Amino acid sequence: MIEFQQVSKRYDSDHTALRHVSFGLGRGELAFLTGHSGAGKSTLLKLILLMERPSAGKVVVGGQLLNTMPRRQIPYVRRHIGAVFQNHQLLFDRTVFDNVAMPLEVMGVSHQDIGRRVRAALDKVGLLSKEKMNPVQLSGGEQQRVGIARAVVNKPPVLLADEPTGNLDPELSADIMHLFEQFSQVGVTVLIATHDIALIESMGRRRLTLAHGELLTTPPAGRVVA
Ligand SMILES: Nc1ncnc2c1ncn2[C@@H]1O[C@H](COP(=O)(O)OP(=O)(O)OP(=O)(O)O)[C@@H](O)[C@H]1O
């Protein structure tokens, strides 16, 4: 579902953020992306989201080569990728329902379908009873779950998360991870960038580790070999 072939990314400043990175993630696979600050984790996610383009190598998502994707196609590619960020980027002047509905509104989904799909997504993250509230009235963990509901409301086959548990205590972090596991069980490919080593170890999933832009060897079982 996600494939990197010898991908390098050099920013204009002549700084190489990724060097010859190759890996593949299959349908329904859940993996973690780790590495020191500045190792290139966000850059790798940005290449999948077409927020950046590779300087060399190939990025293939859902069978589509992203390198040469014309700009006007970018919104269509992004519809197939859900993204969750640490600061969850919710709009505080709209209700929980409206926040989750946003991607569907952009896609021109009918009013009736929006209601059905938003409620299904909120139900999945356990927030159906809070649809009329403003995100400001919710706890940090609940806000993060609203962000996850918004990311999955159009059922994307790929879900990316950048430090999704950064502000949360261990118990809430485990809840969020459990949600990600549930999505992977129904076939969603999930890639989670995090510094939370304890959490990663507790999950026993595959780990992709970047160091200074290079991917360390990762056998499929998940153990990292430097
Ligand atoms: N737009 C940009 N222009 C120039 N350099 C950049 C840009 N974005 C990132 N970099 C550099 O590329 C390197 C990798 O950054 P990146 O944000 O991908 O790392 P990261 O692993 O996500 O770090 P962190 O864990 O701190 O978020 C860093 O040295 C960073 O300064």
Automatic annotation (TrEMBL):
SUPFAM superfamilies: P-loop containing nucleoside triphosphate hydrolases. It is a peripheral membrane protein. One of its GO terms (molecular function) is transmembrane transporter activity. Its main location: membrane. It is found in: Cell inner membrane; Cell membrane. It holds the Pfam family ABC_tran. Residues 2-224 form the ABC transporter domain. One of its GO terms (biological process) is cell division. One of its GO terms (cellular component) is plasma membrane. Belongs to the ABC transporter superfamily. Homodimer. Forms a membrane-associated complex with FtsX. Part of the ABC transporter FtsEX involved in cellular division. Important for assembly or stability of the septal ring. This is Cell division ATP-binding protein FtsE.
